[in-house]
Amino acid sequence: MAKAAGPAAVWERVRTFALGLPGAVEEFPWGESVVKVNKKVFVFLGTDDGSYPLGITMKLKDPEAHAHALSSPGAEPAGYGLGKSGWVRVPLEETDAPAADLLCDWTEESYRVIAPKKLIAELDGE
Fold this sequence. Notes:
There is one protein chain. The termini are far apart. This protein has four helices and six strands; from the N terminus they run αββββαββαα. 31% of the residues are buried. Strand 1 (24-27) and strand 2 form a beta hairpin. It has helices at 7-19, 63-70, 100-114, 117-123; strands at 24-27, 33-37, 40-46, 55-59, 76-77, 87-91. It has a six-stranded antiparallel sheet with strand order 1-2-3-4-6-5, covered by helices on one side. By secondary structure, it is of the alpha+beta class.
């Protein structure tokens, strides 16, 4: 049986996936990595320097995905009031943390909530 990827590898995979979405750019406000589209954040990646546990925060509007994300070990509504708007923080260093593929799906959902229609159409190959 294949060993699950470590938290740093999962974090890097999600970061690479997010940056591959149309119009996505990485910025470092507050010294943390965020990925934006159209000047709006769609995923908070935090830091990978070991100063904080690795985690990913994304906006999930779909009630099923939102509930699934919140059921992940250690997951919680995002701080600073963002949780009220559907933002969920998922820690990567928990035992049984979500797999990279699922985190990439959630990252794409967050992107679709934030991105302009023109870029979503590009993502969909239209």
